[in-house]
Amino acid sequence: MTTYRWFRQGIIGVVGGALLVTLVGCSTPLTTREKGALIGGGAGVGTGALLGGGTGAVIGGALGAGGGLLVGDQLQK
């Protein structure tokens, strides 16, 4: 059971990393709002995976992206 949990967390990390590389590799520079959402989402996924397993990573990523988007939006104004 423990092996499956580590495997699932590893898959979430790899998919999150691939998404991060894909978004960062865009041809146009990211706005402050987009950077905030990206950093917040990454931090939320990492924290959620450490604290809550697979479900926590999804919830943490969504909350982190939303929070990062709001902070980035305020910084851009």
SSE topology:
Elements: H1 2-24, H2 32-76
Helix pairs in contact: 1-2
Structural features, described:
The mean pLDDT is 74. Helix content is 88%, strand content 0%. It is flat and about 45 Å long. The longest helix has 45 residues, at 32-76. The chain has one domain (2-76). By secondary structure, it is an all-alpha fold. The protein has 2 helices and no strands.
Let me know the largest β-sheet.
none
Distance between the termini: 48 Å
Low-confidence stretches are none
Count of the separate structural domains? 1
If you average the pLDDT, what whole number results?
Answer: 74
Helix-strand string: HH
Radius of gyration: 13 Å
Can you count the helices? 2
What structural class do helix, strand and pairing data support? mainly alpha
Bin the strand percentage. Answer: under 5%
DSSP strand tally: 0
What's the overall geometry? Answer: flat
Helix content range: over 70%
